[in-house]
Amino acid sequence: MSTDTAIEDCIDSAAKAVGSVWPLHSFVTANPLAGFEDQPFHEAVGEAEALLGADGYPDSAVFRRAYEDGRIDTEILEATLAAHDYETDPEASLDAMDGPTTESTLPETEGVDTVLSKWLAAFLDEGQAAWPMPNREDGFYEAFRSVATHDGTIPDSDAITDLPDDPADAIRDALAAHSVDEWEAIMECQLAALPGWTGLLKQRAVDEGAWQSAYPITLTGYLAVRLTLVEAFDAVFVPDTKVEPDTSVPRAECWLGAWEDSYRDELVDPITDASESLSEADEKRPDAQLVFCIDTRSEIIRRRVEATGDYETHGYAGFFGVPMQYSGYDSSVSVDACPPIVDAKHYVTEEPTNGENEERYDRWAGLLDAGKTAIKDLRSNAATAFSFVESTGVGYGGALAARTLVPGRVRGLLGAAADRTPADHTHCAPTLDHDSDAGHDLPQGLTLDDRVEYAATAFELMGIEEFGRLFVFTGHGSETANNPFDSSLDCGACAGNPGGPSARVLATICNDEAVRERLTERGVDVPDDTVFLAGQHNTTTDEIDLYASEVPESHADDFAQLRDDLDTARTQAAAERAGDMGADTANGVAETERRAADWAETRPEWGLAGNAGFVVGPRELTDGLDLDGRAFLHSYDWRTDTDGDALEAIIGGPMVVTQWINTQYYFATVDNATFGSGSKITHNPVGNVGVYQGNGGDIMTGLPLQSLTATDDDLYHQPLRLSTVIHAPVERVTEILRDNEAVAELLDNDWLSLTVVDPTQDHAAFEYESDIEWTLLSEDAPTPEQTPPPAAADD
Q1: How far apart are the C-alpha atoms of 15 and 31, rounded to whole Å?
Q2: Which of 196, 271, 318, 669 would give a disulfide with 491, using CB separation of 3.0 to 4.6 Å?
Q3: Coil, strand or helix: which one is 634?
Q4: First to last CA, the chain
Q5: What average pLDDT does the chain have?
Q6: 772 in the Ramachandran plot: left (φ > 0), alpha (ψ -120 to 50) or beta?
């Protein structure tokens, strides 16, 4: 093997130790230990502790609080501890967890990290810096070589001057004193030294987006610079002693498992009961159907909507199955509106539909853009800022005071001003006309076949056969002020962007007469009087904005009634959420609106905090349950999925994405310093890509404390791994897992759990154990027939 190949192979393998990080403007929740998912969970967190100095389990105080609050069943806990030969007394077990912790063996590289952080921030900046780093278009390695010789903090500038043209040659030179067998360990250690920056550049290189195309950076170039600096600072390449992770199951794993089993019982038992009483589909036609994202925040509003009238709600991944790159009207950028595990396949734009509104919109938008530009100039030019404040005097100070003291009123005034400006959806519509030669990286628009496939897939995955007069695809987005992590509160299925555009695209598709004709051929009969609409759920205020500038006169009354009922549902949902946040439930709407507008509010909403379950099945299984906004809900009816393709798509897609979200919240809760981002109060945004704690160093990689805690000392998010419940024949799930080894591996390694409630076997519940084997949870139910796995193919 050539040394070049050895270097690339070592880099690829070493990089698995660092989780991917997305820019703040498109924050994607992902498992920070995704590279360790091929190992059992307890071994993975052991390796993370040795490599990153990270905690992988809640501490004993968190377990003690959960036990005292009755969240951990004593019998389950004692049985779990006994199964692993631990002392079964809960108090003694907790005391044993309070022993000494393992000391970190991470090498000291402070000087190296300081220099690299400075230049990485300059190079990876996405439009925030007033004075960009020179020569970025040549790539990070070349740009660093051109400027670092002037950096007086580097002890040996000759080391930079003497760098070879090829970064691989620089790595080879730096590792000359080490055997090839040591290279991967050295690279892993160095990549893990700044996991935030490393994770960002790693993901940027994979995405190959506009910033990467203009200013390329690679792990090879980064490591070449880093290893050169390690030599210049005479820092340590790798710890002298490698700590071998303990492969035994720790006490904390037993406590965590018992906590999860206790929660799972509370989730599975009522679903099993509901399965027993599940009847054939109600032949009564609903007044309207609303499809929400599977996001946990949709659970509360769905309950409230259903209670206001004869409405059905369904759950579907918030990008609504259309993998696209979307560019709004008058927008200079496009965004991927699909999960990171899906590649965008179409480029979709908006076009004006009303000339009068277009002119009015452009006029107001121009004024708003001028104002934003002025504010940006004020922030970056101290002299201008002083003269501006001096000239505006009391007026500017009054505006600041109002924004601080009465944010709700300011929001009302801004809303009134916004009402004078036509919203995008009133004068624009997504254009879906297909043009493969439009000059974009992706084909513009969608072919008729594409449109039919996305519409049919949506209805087939959700098991929808009956259609109301109004059918609303409801995306979601958040509203917050002065919040670098605002995109973390938008739609996770849309890569940290609002889901309204995706809802509009699918609604447009389903209103297409040619699509509806083809749907009939596929057995999806949409009545002529069904009108598809789009909307967006504001998860901060629970307001649902229906995107409908024109509704047929025949449906005007239906539409007006729906709007009234959505307002009622909003009032009820906002009151419930206000209570969760310790606010006055009688003024829920006002309180949620204040939080949305208050630029000093560190907890505008909880986001997906509390997430713990994922239910795949008909809404009837959960529509009578208050799941406390903790469960992802995906509609699915096994009776309409004769070949199992729909369920396979859900298991391989949304189930994996929800596991990503769940592990992001889990790890950010158990070790916020390593996997989170600390307090919002001390955040320092950098480069429009991340935040520092303080004035430099590594960028933080996960959620802030305020997204996870009720107070400084009390957790709001309960750190549990995802419990998935699927309503389907267990044999169908078994076959799907046999064909999807990556998903089965996640289950085998305890990154999430799976319970199947089988309606074909007396509604028995089966819990996944390992190696595609199940444990019967109900003693009086039959054991599923076990089919031997298919024989291995010859090599």
Answers
A1: 14
A2: 318
A3: strand
A4: 23
A5: 88
A6: left
Give the separation between CA 252 and CA 58, rounded to whole angstroms.
Answer: 7
213-251 pLDDT, tens digit each: 999 999 999 999 999 999 999 887 776 655 566 678 999
Which tokens sit at 378? 């004020």
Q: Are 319 and 294 in contact (CB under 8 A)?
A: no
Distance between alpha carbon 222 and the CA centroid of its chain, in Å? 27
Provide the greatest CA pair distance for the chain. 81
- State the residue for tokens 């980064």: 222
pLDDT at 387 exceeding the cut of 60: no
Tell me how far CA of residue 601 lies from CA of 13, 404, 411, 482, 580, in angstroms: 42, 10, 14, 8, 16
Separation between Cα atoms, residue 652 and residue 746, nearest integer Å? 11
pLDDT reading at 529 higher than 80: yes
pLDDT at 396: 53
**Contact (CB, 8 A) for 788 and 295:** no
As a whole number of angstroms, the distance between CA 321 and CA 72 comes to 38
* Other beta carbons less than 10 A from residue 571's beta carbon: 14
What secondary structure, in 3-state letters, does 551-591 show? CCHHHHHHHHHHHHHHHHHHHHHHHHHHHHCCCCHHHHHHH
CA distances from 89 to 61, 69, 97, 199, 255 (A): 16, 17, 13, 42, 12
Looking at residue 588, its amino acid is G
User: Can you read off the two tokens belonging to residue 452?
Assistant: 């039919």
Neighbours of 361 (CB within 10 A): 21
Q: What is the pLDDT of residue 613?
A: 98
3-state secondary structure of 166: coil
Token readout for 125 is 């900046």
**Has this prediction a pTM greater than 0.85?**
yes
Buried b (16+ CB within 10 A) or exposed e, 145-169: beebeeeeebeeeebbeebeeebbe
Q: Are residues 229 and 105 in contact, defined by beta-carbon separation less than 8 angstroms?
A: no
